[in-house]
Amino acid sequence: MDDILLLDTTERYLKGELNAEDRAAFEQLRQTIPEVDQMVVEHNMFLNQINAFGQNREYKHHLHEVHNNLEEAGVISATTTDEGKVVPLWKRYKKVIGIAATIASVTALVISALVTYFTPANKGDIVQLNRKINQVMHSYNVQSKQLNELKSKVPMYEKALNGGTSFLIDGSGFLVTNAHVVKGSSTILVQNNKGQEFKAIIAHIDNVKDLAILKIDDEDFKSFPSLPYRIRKGATDLGEPIYTLGFPKDEIVYNEGYMSAKTGYNGDTISYQIAVSANPGNSGGPVFNRNGEVIGILSTSQPTAQGVVFAIKSRNVHQAIDSLKKVDTTYQNLKVSSVSNLKGLDRVQQIKQIQDCVFMVKSFTK
């Protein structure tokens, strides 16, 4: 497919003008050729910018017409240069003018706030993948119903704040999630795939890299002798298949995709861009490669670009652990597995070993 035909097909795809067969073929092309997927993302951003520019010009033109109509109707008058009249009027009415200017400033601020409130957010921006947990109730899946009745540890007099996902980095109860999931929280609960809740505390938080290390601080938690996966330090190749596990709903959810760019939003080197389905609640979830190695942590998505999600590179987890150990020597025993036991297993078997290590996060504030 030559460049001109590819560009034309991309534009028709974004405008929804392709028939079902051509659309399916083009989406398959996006999945197999990362450069095509990147072109679709960039062209979509370009079209959004063109539309925004056109709307801005149209809005200015409309304001100009309104101004001219008001002048013609005598509601407002053109600026005068007659200094002989302006100066005396200023001296005579400067107090009144000052009050009027203050009122005008306040009015302008109110109008600006209203415009900001009612205008849709810039679709080129990225959004965090946490979810509000006023909808996340204590839930039990089939396995947990077979256990004794579980008592919820949700604090009675605290307000639900955010929900997300986390995963173990040390079997003794250390987990990683996004900083934005637990930021501002007074109480944190993590819930496993069986519906059991455990209290956790923040051991380390890095708002710049959007990473937080949690420590389960609950006598009901039983340590894992080992973890089946390792957290990768090296880079990941374009087009490499990936999959995720997380809690966009009250049970663990699997999704799969591929690595689509080695940098994140606007060339951010802290993150990867991946092509995968992600929803609010996936924040902090692990991204695995085909060998069951953690290569990233889900964090944000770009609403206008289908399947464009960003994941913090896993090497940042190792850096966060090093920082934690330097600040607090009581965490010297924190050890990250350097071996993955999942290589060579099929996807279903990998997930069966991983899912107990992935936890829902629920944060609350007083």
Protein architecture, described:
The protein starts with a helix and ends with a strand. The chain is 35% helix and 23% strand. It is built from eight helices and 13 strands. It is α+β, with helices and mostly antiparallel strands and 366 residues long. Mean pLDDT is 79; it is low at 79-86, 110-124 and 135-149. The strands form two sheets. A six-stranded antiparallel beta barrel has the order 7-8-9-12-11-10. Strands 2-3-6-5-4-13 form a six-stranded antiparallel β-barrel. A hairpin with a 6-residue loop joins strand 11 (294-301) and strand 12. The chain is globular and about 80 Å long.
Report the β-strand fraction as a percent range: 15-25%
**Gyration radius over CA:** 27 Å
Task: Please identify the top-level CATH class of one domain.
Answer: Mainly Beta
Q: Encode the helix/strand succession as letters.
A: HHHHEHEEHEEEEEEEEEHHE
Shape: globular
Based on helices, strands and strand pairing, what is the structural class? Answer: alpha+beta
Termini separation: 58 Å
Find the count of extended strands (DSSP E, 2+ residues): 13
Could you say what the CATH topology of one domain is called?
Thrombin, subunit H
Low-confidence stretches: 79-86, 110-124, 135-149
Mean pLDDT metric: 79
Helix content: 25-40%
